[in-house]
Specification:
- With 453 residues, the protein is an alpha/beta fold.
- The protein has one domain: Glycosidases (TIM Barrel, Alpha-Beta Barrel), CATH 3.20.20.80.
- An eight-stranded parallel β-sheet has the order 5-4-3-2-1-11-10-7.
- Helix 3 runs parallel beside helix 5 and helix 7 runs parallel beside helix 9.
- It is globular and about 60 Å long.
- It starts with 7 loop residues before the first strand and ends in a 6-residue tail after the last helix.
- Bound molecules: ligand GBH.
- The site of ligand GBH has 18 residues, from helix 8.
Protein backbone atom coordinates (compact mmCIF):
# COMPACT_ATOMS: atom_id res chain seq x y z
CA UNK A 1 0.00 0.00 0.00
CA UNK A 2 1.09 3.57 -0.49
CA UNK A 3 -0.03 6.99 -1.63
CA UNK A 4 -2.61 7.14 -4.39
CA UNK A 5 -1.33 7.22 -7.96
CA UNK A 6 -2.42 10.80 -8.60
CA UNK A 7 -0.98 12.06 -5.29
CA UNK A 8 -0.20 15.79 -5.43
CA UNK A 9 3.49 16.18 -4.57
CA UNK A 10 4.87 19.66 -4.46
CA UNK A 11 6.21 22.64 -2.59
CA UNK A 12 4.82 25.89 -1.25
CA UNK A 13 5.74 29.55 -0.78
CA UNK A 14 3.92 32.82 -0.08
CA UNK A 15 4.05 36.22 -1.75
CA UNK A 16 5.48 38.47 0.95
CA UNK A 17 8.00 35.84 1.97
CA UNK A 18 9.67 35.56 -1.44
CA UNK A 19 8.67 38.25 -3.93
CA UNK A 20 10.39 41.43 -2.81
CA UNK A 21 9.70 44.32 -5.23
CA UNK A 22 7.62 45.70 -2.40
CA UNK A 23 7.31 49.16 -3.90
CA UNK A 24 7.61 48.42 -7.60
CA UNK A 25 5.34 48.54 -10.61
CA UNK A 26 2.38 50.08 -8.84
CA UNK A 27 2.03 47.65 -5.95
CA UNK A 28 0.17 49.11 -2.97
CA UNK A 29 1.59 48.68 0.53
CA UNK A 30 0.48 45.77 2.67
CA UNK A 31 0.30 45.62 6.45
CA UNK A 32 3.52 43.59 6.34
CA UNK A 33 5.36 46.34 4.44
CA UNK A 34 4.41 48.65 7.27
CA UNK A 35 4.91 46.31 10.20
CA UNK A 36 8.30 44.98 9.11
CA UNK A 37 9.62 48.54 9.09
CA UNK A 38 8.49 49.26 12.65
CA UNK A 39 11.48 49.18 14.98
CA UNK A 40 11.67 46.20 17.28
CA UNK A 41 9.00 44.08 15.65
CA UNK A 42 11.13 41.72 13.58
CA UNK A 43 14.19 39.80 14.67
CA UNK A 44 17.30 41.68 13.51
CA UNK A 45 15.04 44.27 11.88
CA UNK A 46 14.66 42.35 8.63
CA UNK A 47 12.02 43.37 6.10
CA UNK A 48 10.54 41.71 3.03
CA UNK A 49 11.48 44.62 0.75
CA UNK A 50 13.72 42.40 -1.37
CA UNK A 51 13.21 38.93 0.13
CA UNK A 52 14.25 36.34 -2.50
CA UNK A 53 13.71 38.85 -5.29
CA UNK A 54 11.41 36.27 -6.81
CA UNK A 55 9.49 39.03 -8.59
CA UNK A 56 12.50 39.45 -10.88
CA UNK A 57 13.88 35.92 -10.72
CA UNK A 58 10.77 33.79 -11.03
CA UNK A 59 11.92 32.22 -14.29
CA UNK A 60 15.09 30.96 -12.64
CA UNK A 61 13.04 29.69 -9.71
CA UNK A 62 10.60 27.84 -11.94
CA UNK A 63 13.57 26.26 -13.74
CA UNK A 64 14.84 25.02 -10.38
CA UNK A 65 11.41 23.60 -9.58
CA UNK A 66 11.46 21.77 -12.86
CA UNK A 67 14.90 20.37 -12.12
CA UNK A 68 13.63 19.25 -8.73
CA UNK A 69 10.71 17.42 -10.30
CA UNK A 70 8.10 19.54 -8.54
CA UNK A 71 4.80 18.97 -10.34
CA UNK A 72 2.62 21.14 -8.11
CA UNK A 73 3.50 24.55 -6.77
CA UNK A 74 1.48 26.42 -4.18
CA UNK A 75 2.09 30.16 -4.12
CA UNK A 76 0.03 33.12 -2.98
CA UNK A 77 -1.07 36.30 -4.66
CA UNK A 78 -0.37 39.64 -3.05
CA UNK A 79 -3.75 41.36 -2.88
CA UNK A 80 -2.28 44.91 -2.91
CA UNK A 81 -0.03 44.03 -5.86
CA UNK A 82 -3.19 43.31 -7.80
CA UNK A 83 -5.43 45.99 -6.28
CA UNK A 84 -3.22 48.65 -4.67
CA UNK A 85 -6.00 50.17 -2.56
CA UNK A 86 -7.54 46.79 -1.80
CA UNK A 87 -10.69 47.72 -3.70
CA UNK A 88 -11.17 49.50 -7.00
CA UNK A 89 -8.48 50.09 -9.55
CA UNK A 90 -6.55 47.08 -10.81
CA UNK A 91 -2.77 47.23 -11.22
CA UNK A 92 -2.22 45.65 -14.61
CA UNK A 93 1.50 45.20 -14.01
CA UNK A 94 0.67 43.09 -10.98
CA UNK A 95 -1.73 41.00 -13.03
CA UNK A 96 1.01 40.58 -15.64
CA UNK A 97 3.50 39.30 -13.10
CA UNK A 98 1.22 36.50 -11.89
CA UNK A 99 0.08 35.78 -15.42
CA UNK A 100 3.69 35.35 -16.56
CA UNK A 101 4.48 33.20 -13.54
CA UNK A 102 1.50 30.95 -14.26
CA UNK A 103 2.49 30.62 -17.93
CA UNK A 104 6.06 29.79 -16.96
CA UNK A 105 4.85 27.12 -14.52
CA UNK A 106 2.51 25.52 -17.01
CA UNK A 107 5.21 25.50 -19.70
CA UNK A 108 7.42 23.66 -17.18
CA UNK A 109 4.69 21.09 -16.54
CA UNK A 110 3.90 22.42 -13.07
CA UNK A 111 0.36 22.83 -11.78
CA UNK A 112 -0.22 26.18 -10.08
CA UNK A 113 -2.14 26.01 -6.80
CA UNK A 114 -3.06 29.56 -5.86
CA UNK A 115 -3.64 30.78 -2.32
CA UNK A 116 -5.66 33.98 -2.45
CA UNK A 117 -4.58 35.26 0.92
CA UNK A 118 -1.39 34.55 2.81
CA UNK A 119 -1.35 37.50 5.20
CA UNK A 120 -0.21 40.53 3.14
CA UNK A 121 -3.40 42.54 3.64
CA UNK A 122 -3.78 45.87 1.81
CA UNK A 123 -2.72 48.70 4.13
CA UNK A 124 -5.43 50.88 2.61
CA UNK A 125 -8.10 48.50 3.89
CA UNK A 126 -6.41 48.21 7.25
CA UNK A 127 -7.02 51.95 7.55
CA UNK A 128 -10.72 51.19 7.02
CA UNK A 129 -10.91 48.74 9.90
CA UNK A 130 -9.80 45.63 8.04
CA UNK A 131 -11.72 42.48 9.01
CA UNK A 132 -13.69 44.29 11.66
CA UNK A 133 -15.50 46.29 8.99
CA UNK A 134 -18.76 44.56 7.97
CA UNK A 135 -17.89 45.43 4.36
CA UNK A 136 -14.67 43.44 4.53
CA UNK A 137 -16.09 40.13 3.23
CA UNK A 138 -17.28 41.95 0.10
CA UNK A 139 -13.83 43.47 -0.48
CA UNK A 140 -12.36 40.00 -0.44
CA UNK A 141 -15.12 38.66 -2.68
CA UNK A 142 -14.28 41.25 -5.34
CA UNK A 143 -10.59 40.40 -5.12
CA UNK A 144 -11.37 36.68 -5.42
CA UNK A 145 -13.56 37.35 -8.45
CA UNK A 146 -10.70 39.27 -10.09
CA UNK A 147 -8.27 36.40 -9.49
CA UNK A 148 -10.78 33.96 -10.97
CA UNK A 149 -11.39 36.13 -14.02
CA UNK A 150 -7.76 36.84 -14.76
CA UNK A 151 -6.17 33.51 -13.88
CA UNK A 152 -9.00 30.98 -13.88
CA UNK A 153 -8.40 30.06 -17.51
CA UNK A 154 -5.09 28.49 -16.41
CA UNK A 155 -5.33 28.01 -12.65
CA UNK A 156 -7.63 25.14 -11.71
CA UNK A 157 -6.85 24.92 -7.99
CA UNK A 158 -7.47 27.70 -5.52
CA UNK A 159 -7.13 27.96 -1.75
CA UNK A 160 -8.99 30.81 -0.09
CA UNK A 161 -7.15 31.51 3.18
CA UNK A 162 -3.90 30.46 4.73
CA UNK A 163 -3.99 30.04 8.51
CA UNK A 164 -6.67 32.51 9.62
CA UNK A 165 -5.63 31.53 13.16
CA UNK A 166 -2.34 33.31 12.63
CA UNK A 167 -3.31 36.51 10.90
CA UNK A 168 -6.15 37.06 13.35
CA UNK A 169 -4.57 35.53 16.47
CA UNK A 170 -1.05 36.87 15.98
CA UNK A 171 -1.90 39.99 13.96
CA UNK A 172 -4.81 41.34 16.02
CA UNK A 173 -4.67 39.29 19.24
CA UNK A 174 -1.07 38.92 20.34
CA UNK A 175 0.35 41.68 18.17
CA UNK A 176 3.33 39.62 17.05
CA UNK A 177 2.45 39.74 13.36
CA UNK A 178 1.22 42.58 11.15
CA UNK A 179 -0.48 44.86 11.82
CA UNK A 180 0.65 44.28 15.41
CA UNK A 181 -2.51 45.06 17.36
CA UNK A 182 -3.71 43.64 20.65
CA UNK A 183 -7.46 43.85 20.38
CA UNK A 184 -10.09 42.41 22.72
CA UNK A 185 -12.30 39.42 21.97
CA UNK A 186 -15.10 41.76 21.01
CA UNK A 187 -12.97 42.70 17.99
CA UNK A 188 -11.14 39.51 17.09
CA UNK A 189 -14.21 37.28 17.25
CA UNK A 190 -16.09 39.66 14.95
CA UNK A 191 -13.09 39.54 12.61
CA UNK A 192 -13.12 35.76 12.59
CA UNK A 193 -16.75 35.77 11.52
CA UNK A 194 -16.03 38.20 8.69
CA UNK A 195 -13.07 36.12 7.54
CA UNK A 196 -15.34 33.08 7.39
CA UNK A 197 -17.91 35.10 5.43
CA UNK A 198 -15.16 36.24 3.09
CA UNK A 199 -14.20 32.61 2.60
CA UNK A 200 -17.76 31.64 1.68
CA UNK A 201 -18.21 34.55 -0.71
CA UNK A 202 -14.83 33.85 -2.31
CA UNK A 203 -15.72 30.20 -2.91
CA UNK A 204 -18.88 31.32 -4.69
CA UNK A 205 -17.01 33.92 -6.74
CA UNK A 206 -14.32 31.43 -7.75
CA UNK A 207 -16.93 28.95 -8.92
CA UNK A 208 -18.80 31.63 -10.81
CA UNK A 209 -15.86 33.22 -12.60
CA UNK A 210 -13.58 30.18 -12.92
CA UNK A 211 -16.11 27.46 -13.64
CA UNK A 212 -14.85 23.96 -13.00
CA UNK A 213 -12.04 25.03 -10.68
CA UNK A 214 -11.35 23.16 -7.46
CA UNK A 215 -11.45 25.11 -4.21
CA UNK A 216 -9.87 24.38 -0.85
CA UNK A 217 -9.05 26.07 2.44
CA UNK A 218 -5.82 25.96 4.48
CA UNK A 219 -6.11 26.65 8.19
CA UNK A 220 -3.65 25.27 10.76
CA UNK A 221 -3.62 23.83 14.24
CA UNK A 222 -1.04 21.78 16.05
CA UNK A 223 -2.21 18.19 16.04
CA UNK A 224 -3.09 16.29 19.19
CA UNK A 225 -1.33 12.97 19.57
CA UNK A 226 -2.67 10.30 21.94
CA UNK A 227 -0.16 9.24 24.57
CA UNK A 228 -0.93 5.59 23.76
CA UNK A 229 -3.17 3.53 21.50
CA UNK A 230 -5.51 3.00 24.45
CA UNK A 231 -9.00 4.08 23.24
CA UNK A 232 -9.31 6.43 26.24
CA UNK A 233 -6.16 8.31 25.20
CA UNK A 234 -7.30 8.41 21.58
CA UNK A 235 -10.63 9.88 22.63
CA UNK A 236 -8.81 12.38 24.86
CA UNK A 237 -6.66 13.53 21.94
CA UNK A 238 -9.68 13.82 19.67
CA UNK A 239 -11.50 15.98 22.23
CA UNK A 240 -8.49 18.18 22.82
CA UNK A 241 -7.94 18.64 19.08
CA UNK A 242 -11.39 20.14 18.54
CA UNK A 243 -11.61 22.09 21.77
CA UNK A 244 -11.87 25.90 21.61
CA UNK A 245 -10.26 28.24 24.07
CA UNK A 246 -7.78 26.12 25.98
CA UNK A 247 -4.68 27.09 24.02
CA UNK A 248 -2.25 29.33 25.93
CA UNK A 249 -1.44 30.97 22.57
CA UNK A 250 -4.89 32.54 22.55
CA UNK A 251 -8.47 31.70 21.61
CA UNK A 252 -7.86 31.81 17.84
CA UNK A 253 -5.53 28.82 17.98
CA UNK A 254 -7.97 26.02 17.53
CA UNK A 255 -9.31 23.91 14.69
CA UNK A 256 -13.08 23.73 15.00
CA UNK A 257 -13.98 27.43 15.22
CA UNK A 258 -12.40 27.95 11.81
CA UNK A 259 -13.34 24.70 10.09
CA UNK A 260 -16.74 23.66 11.44
CA UNK A 261 -18.68 26.62 9.99
CA UNK A 262 -17.32 26.36 6.42
CA UNK A 263 -17.44 22.56 6.31
CA UNK A 264 -20.17 21.49 8.73
CA UNK A 265 -22.30 24.64 8.61
CA UNK A 266 -22.21 25.51 12.32
CA UNK A 267 -19.90 26.88 14.98
CA UNK A 268 -18.79 24.25 17.49
CA UNK A 269 -21.16 24.31 20.46
CA UNK A 270 -18.47 24.44 23.10
CA UNK A 271 -16.86 27.35 21.23
CA UNK A 272 -20.17 29.17 21.01
CA UNK A 273 -20.66 28.91 24.76
CA UNK A 274 -17.32 30.63 25.16
CA UNK A 275 -17.30 33.15 22.32
CA UNK A 276 -20.84 33.35 20.92
CA UNK A 277 -21.55 36.54 22.85
CA UNK A 278 -18.93 38.37 20.79
CA UNK A 279 -20.26 37.38 17.37
CA UNK A 280 -21.90 40.15 15.34
CA UNK A 281 -25.68 40.45 15.50
CA UNK A 282 -27.45 38.15 13.09
CA UNK A 283 -24.49 35.82 12.63
CA UNK A 284 -26.77 32.80 12.31
CA UNK A 285 -28.07 33.87 8.95
CA UNK A 286 -24.51 34.09 7.57
CA UNK A 287 -23.81 30.42 8.11
CA UNK A 288 -25.44 29.48 4.83
CA UNK A 289 -22.98 31.70 2.94
CA UNK A 290 -20.04 30.47 4.99
CA UNK A 291 -20.97 26.84 4.38
CA UNK A 292 -19.96 26.29 0.76
CA UNK A 293 -19.07 22.96 -0.78
CA UNK A 294 -15.29 22.48 -0.93
CA UNK A 295 -13.33 20.12 -3.14
CA UNK A 296 -10.56 19.54 -0.66
CA UNK A 297 -9.46 20.49 2.82
CA UNK A 298 -5.87 21.40 3.65
CA UNK A 299 -3.95 21.98 6.80
CA UNK A 300 -0.48 23.22 7.51
CA UNK A 301 0.82 20.85 10.17
CA UNK A 302 4.29 21.13 11.68
CA UNK A 303 3.93 19.47 15.08
CA UNK A 304 1.61 18.22 17.74
CA UNK A 305 1.13 17.93 21.48
CA UNK A 306 0.79 14.64 23.29
CA UNK A 307 -2.46 14.22 25.21
CA UNK A 308 -3.72 11.57 27.62
CA UNK A 309 -7.01 10.80 29.30
CA UNK A 310 -7.45 12.43 32.71
CA UNK A 311 -9.93 12.55 35.51
CA UNK A 312 -10.78 16.21 35.21
CA UNK A 313 -13.63 18.27 33.78
CA UNK A 314 -12.21 18.21 30.25
CA UNK A 315 -11.33 14.53 30.36
CA UNK A 316 -7.79 15.10 29.09
CA UNK A 317 -4.44 16.63 29.92
CA UNK A 318 -1.29 17.53 28.01
CA UNK A 319 1.76 15.38 28.57
CA UNK A 320 4.76 17.65 29.15
CA UNK A 321 7.58 17.29 26.71
CA UNK A 322 10.53 15.38 28.08
CA UNK A 323 13.73 17.35 28.60
CA UNK A 324 15.88 17.21 25.50
CA UNK A 325 13.02 16.41 23.12
CA UNK A 326 14.15 17.01 19.51
CA UNK A 327 13.35 20.47 18.16
CA UNK A 328 13.84 22.42 14.95
CA UNK A 329 15.83 25.66 14.84
CA UNK A 330 12.69 27.72 15.34
CA UNK A 331 12.15 25.68 18.53
CA UNK A 332 9.18 23.68 17.34
CA UNK A 333 9.13 20.10 18.62
CA UNK A 334 9.70 17.30 16.13
CA UNK A 335 6.62 15.09 16.41
CA UNK A 336 6.17 12.99 13.24
CA UNK A 337 2.99 11.33 14.55
CA UNK A 338 1.28 14.70 14.05
CA UNK A 339 1.00 13.67 10.39
CA UNK A 340 -0.74 10.46 11.34
CA UNK A 341 -3.20 11.63 13.99
CA UNK A 342 -3.84 15.09 12.54
CA UNK A 343 -5.04 13.90 9.12
CA UNK A 344 -6.87 10.97 10.73
CA UNK A 345 -8.91 13.10 13.14
CA UNK A 346 -9.51 15.80 10.53
CA UNK A 347 -10.70 13.37 7.90
CA UNK A 348 -12.97 11.66 10.40
CA UNK A 349 -14.65 14.97 11.25
CA UNK A 350 -14.67 16.81 7.93
CA UNK A 351 -14.75 13.90 5.45
CA UNK A 352 -13.17 15.91 2.63
CA UNK A 353 -10.22 14.85 0.48
CA UNK A 354 -7.27 15.97 2.58
CA UNK A 355 -4.00 17.66 1.68
CA UNK A 356 -1.02 18.76 3.75
CA UNK A 357 -0.56 22.28 2.38
CA UNK A 358 2.60 22.91 4.43
CA UNK A 359 5.04 20.82 6.42
CA UNK A 360 8.78 21.16 6.79
CA UNK A 361 11.54 22.25 9.09
CA UNK A 362 13.64 25.26 9.83
CA UNK A 363 17.33 24.81 10.44
CA UNK A 364 20.34 27.07 10.50
CA UNK A 365 21.74 25.75 7.24
CA UNK A 366 25.20 26.85 6.09
CA UNK A 367 27.23 26.57 2.91
CA UNK A 368 29.97 24.05 3.67
CA UNK A 369 33.60 24.17 2.57
CA UNK A 370 32.65 22.05 -0.41
CA UNK A 371 30.25 24.76 -1.53
CA UNK A 372 27.19 22.62 -0.84
CA UNK A 373 24.42 22.81 1.72
CA UNK A 374 24.05 19.57 3.65
CA UNK A 375 20.78 19.28 5.55
CA UNK A 376 20.41 15.66 6.69
CA UNK A 377 18.22 16.84 9.57
CA UNK A 378 15.61 18.15 7.11
CA UNK A 379 15.59 14.88 5.19
CA UNK A 380 15.16 12.97 8.41
CA UNK A 381 12.33 15.26 9.51
CA UNK A 382 10.47 14.91 6.21
CA UNK A 383 11.14 11.19 6.05
CA UNK A 384 9.62 10.59 9.47
CA UNK A 385 6.62 12.87 8.88
CA UNK A 386 5.91 11.41 5.46
CA UNK A 387 5.99 7.89 6.87
CA UNK A 388 3.39 8.88 9.43
CA UNK A 389 1.27 10.51 6.72
CA UNK A 390 1.56 7.40 4.57
CA UNK A 391 0.32 5.34 7.48
CA UNK A 392 -2.72 7.64 7.71
CA UNK A 393 -3.36 7.11 3.98
CA UNK A 394 -3.09 3.35 4.46
CA UNK A 395 -5.57 3.57 7.32
CA UNK A 396 -8.21 5.09 5.08
CA UNK A 397 -7.59 8.85 5.15
CA UNK A 398 -8.26 10.22 1.65
CA UNK A 399 -4.83 11.85 1.50
CA UNK A 400 -4.57 13.61 -1.84
CA UNK A 401 -1.35 15.57 -1.47
CA UNK A 402 1.67 16.91 0.37
CA UNK A 403 3.23 20.31 -0.24
CA UNK A 404 6.57 20.86 1.45
CA UNK A 405 7.31 24.14 3.16
CA UNK A 406 9.29 25.49 1.61
CA UNK A 407 10.64 25.50 -1.90
CA UNK A 408 13.34 27.96 -0.89
CA UNK A 409 14.59 29.84 2.15
CA UNK A 410 12.50 32.94 2.68
CA UNK A 411 11.30 35.68 4.98
CA UNK A 412 10.04 33.90 8.07
CA UNK A 413 7.74 36.69 9.30
CA UNK A 414 8.70 37.93 12.79
CA UNK A 415 11.87 35.81 12.61
CA UNK A 416 13.08 37.58 9.48
CA UNK A 417 15.70 35.63 7.56
CA UNK A 418 17.12 33.91 10.60
CA UNK A 419 15.21 30.67 10.08
CA UNK A 420 15.68 28.68 6.89
CA UNK A 421 12.86 26.40 5.80
CA UNK A 422 13.86 25.86 2.16
CA UNK A 423 15.08 22.93 0.12
CA UNK A 424 16.91 25.59 -1.88
CA UNK A 425 19.36 27.81 0.00
CA UNK A 426 19.19 31.53 -0.74
CA UNK A 427 22.21 33.79 -0.26
CA UNK A 428 20.43 37.04 0.55
CA UNK A 429 23.49 39.13 -0.35
CA UNK A 430 23.91 37.83 -3.89
CA UNK A 431 20.50 36.19 -4.42
CA UNK A 432 22.38 33.08 -5.46
CA UNK A 433 20.35 29.89 -5.09
CA UNK A 434 22.15 26.75 -3.92
CA UNK A 435 20.19 23.53 -3.90
CA UNK A 436 20.42 21.66 -0.60
CA UNK A 437 20.84 17.90 -0.26
CA UNK A 438 17.13 17.65 0.64
CA UNK A 439 16.29 18.99 -2.84
CA UNK A 440 17.63 15.76 -4.38
CA UNK A 441 16.20 13.58 -1.66
CA UNK A 442 12.70 15.02 -2.08
CA UNK A 443 13.05 14.64 -5.85
CA UNK A 444 13.40 10.86 -5.48
CA UNK A 445 10.51 10.72 -3.01
CA UNK A 446 8.24 12.49 -5.50
CA UNK A 447 9.49 10.38 -8.41
CA UNK A 448 8.80 7.17 -6.55
CA UNK A 449 5.48 8.35 -5.12
CA UNK A 450 6.84 7.79 -1.64
CA UNK A 451 7.54 4.08 -2.20
CA UNK A 452 11.07 4.60 -0.85
CA UNK A 453 9.99 6.09 2.44
C1 LIG B 1 3.20 28.78 8.42
O1 LIG B 1 2.97 29.32 9.66
C2 LIG B 1 2.98 29.84 7.44
O2 LIG B 1 1.85 29.58 6.64
C3 LIG B 1 4.19 30.12 6.60
O3 LIG B 1 4.03 31.35 5.98
C4 LIG B 1 5.39 30.05 7.48
O4 LIG B 1 6.55 30.49 6.83
C5 LIG B 1 5.57 28.61 7.87
O5 LIG B 1 4.40 28.11 8.43
C6 LIG B 1 6.71 28.39 8.82
O6 LIG B 1 6.50 29.08 10.01
O7 LIG B 1 -3.01 26.53 16.70
O8 LIG B 1 -1.73 26.63 18.74
O9 LIG B 1 -1.88 24.67 17.53
C7 LIG B 1 3.15 28.40 10.64
C8 LIG B 1 3.11 29.01 11.97
C9 LIG B 1 2.25 26.96 12.85
C10 LIG B 1 1.94 29.03 13.96
C11 LIG B 1 1.07 26.40 13.54
C12 LIG B 1 0.76 28.50 14.66
C13 LIG B 1 -0.41 26.58 15.30
C14 LIG B 1 -0.39 26.69 16.76
N1 LIG B 1 2.06 28.39 12.68
N2 LIG B 1 0.86 27.07 14.78
S1 LIG B 1 -1.87 26.08 17.45
Amino acid sequence: MSFRKDFIWGAATASYQIEGAAYEDGKGPSVWDRFSHEPGKILEGHTGDVACDHYHRFREDVALMKEMGVKNYRFSISWPRLIPQGVGEVNEKGVQFYSDLIDELIAAGIRPIVTLFHWDYPAALQARGAWENPESPKWFEAYAALCAERFGDRVKDFITFNEPQCFIGLGYGKGEHAPGYRLPLSSTVVMSHHVLMAHGLAVKALRKYAPGCRVGYAPCGDARIPASEDPADIEAARRAYFQVGDNPEGWAFNVSWWSDPPILGSYPEQGLRLLGQYLPQGWEKDLETIHQPLDFYCQNIYNGDVVRAADNAQGYEMVPQPVGHPKTAIQWPITPDALYWGPKFLYERYKLPFMISENGMSSHDVVSLDGKVHDPQRQDYMHRYLRAYKRAAEDGVDAIGYLAWSLMDNYEWAFGYTDRFGMIYVDYQTQERIVKDSFYWYKTVMEQNGENL
